[in-house]
Amino acid sequence: MSERVNPAHIKHPLERWLSDDRVLLFNFWVADILFMSLKKEVFHIHWYEWVFSINSILLFITINYLLFPKFFEKGRVWVFLLLTFLAMCGTAAIEELVIERYFYYDPQAYPIASPSVVLAQYIPPVVIFILIKMMIYYRDRQILVDTLSKEKTESQLQFLKSQINPHILFNNLNNIYSLSIQEDKRTSDTILKLSNLMRYIVYESSENFVLLTKELEYLEDYLELQKIQLEGRGRVDFQLTGNSSGYTIAPLVLIPFVENAFKHSMDTQLDNIIIKIQIEIRNGQLFFSSTNSHDKSSKKSLSPTGIGLSNTKQRLQLLYPEKHTLNIEDSSNSYQVDLRIQLL
Q: Closest Cα to residue 115, out of 148, 153, 88, 134?
């Protein structure tokens, strides 16, 4: 059995109603009855004409429920066309040799029509019916492909988030561990900040998009935590300009770049580290820039932690296709990231 689209995925109610097989068959049945009536001078349907209409609609039911799904949807188009033609011949034969012989018992007054004449009255409605079925079928296939693609994208995003979230938690727990070893008075406040961050990650960032104001608040709190690592070795300059209200952004999409800036600086032996984070909201776009001191020649050998940055690049491709630009420059003494996002 071929895959069929869930009717709920068709947004417009009228389109869902017209796509129903029963509605389509009923409309063709009514059209057939009206056509028989319009051929006569007086609009009237004899009781035996209902038998002719039932014979006709049985042809469309056979095409709809048997031939189309069993052969056309399986790619056996020529078999479908051949069997449809034979079904029309069978319907025409029943009409001429059975139904008319029963109701029109005078062979001289009602001679048997030639096959070409009989088929001529079936071919136009059958062709129209098949064209409508094809349109619905290919439309449903496209909706199904789009739905599966969306579900795949959402599952990918959830998987990427599941990797990013513990990654952020792991790095900040290291900072808190260092403070606790030193019996620093800021340990409790730092734990509270981390608790707020994790609450944001777990509850507020569960959607694909969040309020930009919330994301920027989270970013600033995150910077405060990261500054603990940098104490005594440099400074952090953070600048935010523009009005962020009314916009949304993918959650946790900026954090990995900030984290990477600290990582690239802290992995070296530099003592005068400078990290500059600039964010500007202008004309519906967010411009993010991150620059940090960097010295490849004195880089320490630490455990690899590139999960966040790699996942963020994938998330940008999934959530902002053709709506973002990302440039990364890694020189001998600095590491710079420039990101532009079209905000929603």
A: 88
